[in-house]
Structure formats: structure tokens, C-alpha cells
Request: fold
Amino acid sequence: MRALTLPWIAALILSLTMPAISSRILPRNLVCANDGKTKAGTHFHRRDLQPLSPSPLQARVGAIPVKIPCIWCAAASATYLKINYFNGGEPGNGVSPIVIKMLSDALDQIEKHVAQNGDGIIPMGAYDYQARGFSWYSVNANNHQLTWGVVGAAVDALITFMLNYSSYGMAQFSIFDGENHVGTGTLGPSQG
Reply:
């Protein structure tokens, strides 16, 4: 009889201690790298940002090193990117104005769609925008669906990420809407 109850007692003790053990090794809350204090997935306000330089007209000298992976939050939204890969270059490398213009054109297209049709689910679960030799491709993930508004916020977040770090190039990222992982995406050379 004692042999049968010992495994049950051990299992009970183990199950009672597991939440305490696992809670210590869980990652901390993700924080937006934009300001270093806002919890990722909550509504991020651009006005919370500190000025990047003493004068808004004073340009930065040199690029700031990019730490990857990076959590970057979209302004006025609960959308954020987890940038898993980024291969950027210095300003003036020829890529910077092209990639920013391409992303701005994609954002304009998305905002025009939302203004005319309202927000809604992205058809076929993927948004592919190719122009100027680059391609933005995002697709549904984790049994969730991307919306026009979330993809627009994600494009805007990547633009502000590049402008903040003065580094422009290829990226691979996960898209989150609040706490939900809703998509994955890439920015790279267009295939066509």
C-alpha cells in the first residue's frame, strides 16, 4: 500500500511546487524599446517619448547600434513588432531613401484602403507590397488574422524603428496585436 501512495504524494508535491518554479524562469514583461518603459501590447503614446537630441533640428552623428531581437511598438496603437533579424546600413548608403519611400507608399496604400473600406481582415491572410526593388510581405500566424489597421501600424512601426536607429535594410519580424501574435513578416528584395 505504501508503494502505491508514495508516487501520488511525490506527484502532488511536485505539482504544488511547479508554478513557483516556473514563474521564476518565465520572461519578464516585454517593454517597448521606443521608450524603455511601456509594456508591449498596451496602448503606446508617442508623446511619452523623450526628445532624441537637445534640439529637434540637430541631426544625430552616426548610427546607434541596433539590439536584436528588439520589441518596437507602433504609436497610438497596441500593435508591436518583435524584430528577430535586421540587416541595416548607415544613412547615405543608397538604400535609406528608397526603403523608407517604399514603406511610406505601402502605408499610404493601407491608409487609403481603410479610409475607403474601413478596417477589416486582410484577404487571403497575406499582405504583399512590392515597389522600388523591395517587398513587404506579412502573413497570418498563430491561428489569428491580420487586419488592415494592424498591418498599417506594423509598417509605421518599422519605419520609425529605421528612422530612430538611422539604419535601413532587410528585416524579419513577428507582428503582435496586444498580447496576440497575429502575423509574421519580412522586408527584403522583391522577387519580381
Notes: The mean pLDDT is 79. The CA atoms of residues 5 and 129 lie 63 Å apart. Helices lie at 2-25, 96-117, 148-165. The longest strand covers residues 79-89.
